[in-house]
Amino acid sequence: MWTGMRIPYRNSSLAALSALVLAAACDGAVAERQPGTGWNRARTNMVEQQIIARDIKNPRVLDAMRTVPRHEFVPEAWRAGAYEDTPLPIGHDQTISQPYIVAYMSEALELDASHRVLEVGTGSGYQAAILGELAKEVFTIEIVEPLAAGARATLARLGYTNVHVRAGNGYLGWPEEAPFDRVMVTAAPDAVPPALIEQLKVGGLMAIPVGVGSQELRILRRTANGLETLRTLPVRFVPMTGKPKP
């Protein structure tokens, strides 16, 4: 239940975000822009105040959120707010998701160290890095080529050799690497793309926002007969682009 919590927008007003980051700097968050202990403290506070407080409990997910340096995936102009409870712009009309929704989706997939994961919607690479901490291999697709290139460079610089980035159409998945144990989608199609269902193992889990206008995050399991919905959550993500024509 989302009573009292921010709906996890992946896309929001830049003016509002500017005000948030400016306010954070004025009330002392400017110290968190510094490398080393400042960033570590900000990341610890993020996990304690935004994630554990909202009932995320999986120890591996919490460790991953404490480990991955979110500020490295945020453009310099917005870095002061890297650990705030909000999405932030990353260019090309895209945003890095609110930390809570990253943790929620990661926990929902029940990942273990043997899993191979397909992610659709790399963005700046932050969610892929979290998945890289939790799974054996991550294959992540981004339709915006400059974002894919930037994410690939950041992930390589930070040592995520188990995360593979492709610039391409997420509606098509990554068939040559299928099947996958888990699928995560970070943009909203109007319906679950058939290729992603086909590339998910029977018994595997998928986290995907679905809908136009009104959206819900669906946690799905593939069965021998199709998809089983395990739970849903109201959300607002950017639309998924690139849908093939009939």
Radius of gyration: 17 Å
The named CATH superfamily? Vaccinia Virus protein VP39
Fill in the CATH topology.
Answer: Rossmann fold
Read across the widest sheet, the strand sequence of neighbours is: 5-4-3-6-7-8-9
Number of helices: 7
Number of strands: 9
Distance between the termini: 37 Å
Q: Based on helices, strands and strand pairing, what is the structural class?
A: alpha/beta
User: Quick one: CATH class?
Assistant: Alpha Beta
Note the overall shape. Answer: globular
Low-confidence stretches: 1-34
Biggest sheet descriptor: 7 strands, mixed
* Beta strand %: 15-25%
Q: Provide mean pLDDT, rounded.
A: 88
The helix-strand sequence is HHHEEHEHEHEEHEEE
Number of domains: 1
What proportion of the residues is helical, as a percent range?
25-40%
> Multimeric state of these chains?
single chain
CATH structural architecture: 3-Layer(aba) Sandwich
Overview of this protein structure:
The chain is α/β, with parallel strands linked by helices. The chain has one domain: 3-Layer(aba) Sandwich (Rossmann fold), CATH 3.40.50. Helices cover 30% and strands 24% of the residues. The protein has helices spanning 14-26, 37-51, 59-67, 99-108, 126-134, 145-157, 194-198, and strands at 88-91, 94-96, 116-120, 137-142, 163-167, 180-185, 200-210, 215-223, 226-235. Strand 1 (88-91) and strand 2 form a beta hairpin. Helix 2 packs antiparallel against helix 3 (59-67) and helix 3 packs across helix 5 (126-134). The radius of gyration is 17 Å and the shape is globular. 47% of the residues are buried. Residues 1-34 have low confidence and may be disordered.
